[in-house]
Write a structure and sequence with these properties.
Number of domains: 1
Largest sheet: 2 strands, antiparallel
Structural class: mainly alpha
Number of helices: 5
Strand order of the largest sheet: 1-2
Order of helices and strands: EEHHHHH
Helix content: 55-70%
Number of strands: 2
């Protein structure tokens, strides 16, 4: 059973859900990958706000990479839009709004 993830490339230590959501946000994983995490309870217990927060973490991470470590202005701009979208969704979820504008 997976109980944690240590990601030294991003100096990340946390529950498996963090890494799972990075994969979900950045890639389109196949069922075989996801079935490998079938016993990770944390991933299925994530609230809507938690889902948005974990996806926002992944989107911010890749945006920073595309703006600094591996510059790609066009792709970075698309991820900036995604960061804003996730931020607005999280804001709405946390404030109990139907939609944030």
């Amino acid at each position: 059973m997976i109980v944690g993830v240590a990601d030294f490339s991003n100096t990340l230590v946390g529950p498996p859900a963090v890494e799972i959501y990075r994969v979900l946000e950045l890639l389109d994983p196949e069922e075989e990958f996801l079935s490998g995490y079938a016993e990770v309870k944390a991933a299925s217990d994530v609230s809507q706000a938690g889902d948005l927060c974990l996806r926002l973490d992944a989107a911010v991470m890749i945006t920073l990479v595309l703006l600094s470590e591996a510059p790609d202005p066009d792709l970075a701009e698309r991820w900036i839009v995604r960061v804003r979208e996730l931020y607005q969704g999280l804001k709405a979820e946390l404030l109990g709004l139907q939609s944030a504008q």
